[in-house]
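ok here's Metallo-beta-lactamase domain-containing protein, seq below lol
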Amino acid sequence: MRVVPVPVLEDNFAHLLIDELSKQAAAVDPVEPAKVIEAAAREGVIICSVLTTHSHWDHSGGNEEFSKLVPDAVIYGGKHDTYKPFTRLLDDGDTVRVGGIVAKALHTPFHTPGHVCFHCTEVAGGSGAAGGAAAAAAPDAAAAPGVVFTGDALFVAGCGRINGRGTPAQFKRSLVDVIGALPRDTLVYVGHEYTAANLRFATAVEPGNTALAALAEQAKAALAAGKPTVPSTVGTELDANPFLRPASAEVRAFVSARLGEEALASDETVLAGLRSIKDSFGLGSSAGI
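and the structure came out like this:
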């Protein structure tokens, strides 16, 4: 299994999820289809499916064109979002086969009602049919923890906004109980290159966090070299991302100093309060950042 990030638009990432044995691939959020198809050609792989994390135009907006350019590709997305066009909608826990890889949909709905992350692992038994099919449960996965595509739910050192009908409970569950519960060495591929801005906020929240300081140095070096800051890992985010750290004394002090002690009533209120502070931190007006 291999992942190739494909920079698209101003600061988005599409990705190619590649099964090396079968040379099949899935395109994740291919909002600029031509760029993703060109990347697949360079890698010598055939795109058999599209994995759409959510319905915002900068993630799903290429689906219609993609379906015309690669008509055999199966287009997947969360069942509670709206896609045009779509082939199959996924519920929490449904799976897609990409050769010998299983991509499991994880419902993370605070950013859009149907937002899903895709946790991908290689499985015993080799390659499957192109495109695969949604199923109620994944085949037995190999020991390797794999990768997760987090769309606009989790970013490096940050997270997406709580939008529309999203709730603090969904926010905490999606970030801490779903993504944060994956194996620590799971590679994290996010939907946007927001890392520099996220690190500025995170450092203001937890100035004493040595893991965060180390991540900031790594990101600074990558960006200076013209390289993306992905992948991160679940372990890195658990150690450095304040939105996965509601029990941190520095996080709690930062929130209570601005919103009062009542904001510390639960992990949900801590994280939702932190997100509300981030919304007005002055780091940009993007819907995700």
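fwiw The chain has two domains: 2-152, 195-279. kinda neat tbh
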